[in-house]
Design brief:
Order of helices and strands: HEHEEHEEEHH
CATH architecture: 2-Layer Sandwich
CATH superfamily: Kinase associated domain 1, KA1
């Protein structure tokens, strides 16, 4: 090595700081039963909640990728420059944003959980998924707000229709 003093004095500490900073990311913990984005909706059905979610997300430009009794998956290409730089690849420079709603029946309510992901190389054998809800507090909070809006809208409709909710 030509400049061992330079390496010891500047490069090694910078690399060490970068390594420690990368490891210091604390997991996101919201004030919900799971610590992740979720709401519990009373006085409604899975079907009504699913239809409300589908209508809302299609209106916001998401594509419905898959639908099952308890699962809704929406995707869209993420064209934000920062996201492309971090999650794009040589194979596919445009990553995909994916949101997954899980609906669970519990007694007299429906528990709705939401997860946000960035997918590198979507649809290929090289697909890599990053759960942004677990590592990005701002994203997790934004998804929680979206769930609260969905819940409020359904409860307002229930109140208008005379359905009792908690």
């Amino acid at each position: 090595m030509k400049h061992p003093v330079l390496f010891k004095k500047w490069v090694a500490p910078i690399l060490l700081c970068a390594l420690l900073t990368g490891c210091a990311t604390a997991p996101v913990k919201l004030n919900t039963p799971s610590g992740r984005p979720e709401v519990t909706i009373f006085g409604s059905t899975k079907k009504k909640i699913s239809n409300t979610i589908i209508n809302r997300e299609l209106s916001k430009g998401w594509d419905l990728k898959s639908q099952a009794d308890s699962l809704l998956v929406f995707t869209r290409k993420n064209t934000e420059l920062g996201t492309q730089l971090l999650f794009g690849s040589r194979y596919d420079s445009v990553p995909e944003s994916r949101i997954t709603f899980t609906l669970v029946e519990i007694e007299d309510a429906i528990r709705v959980l939401l997860k946000g992901e960035i997918v590198t190389n979507p649809g290929s054998t090289f697909e890599r998924i990053e759960d942004v809800t677990a590592i990005n507090a701002a994203e997790a909070e934004a998804l929680q707000i979206a769930l609260e809006e969905i819940k409020t809208g359904i409860e307002a409709t229930n109140n208008r229709d005379g359905v009792v909710s908690r």
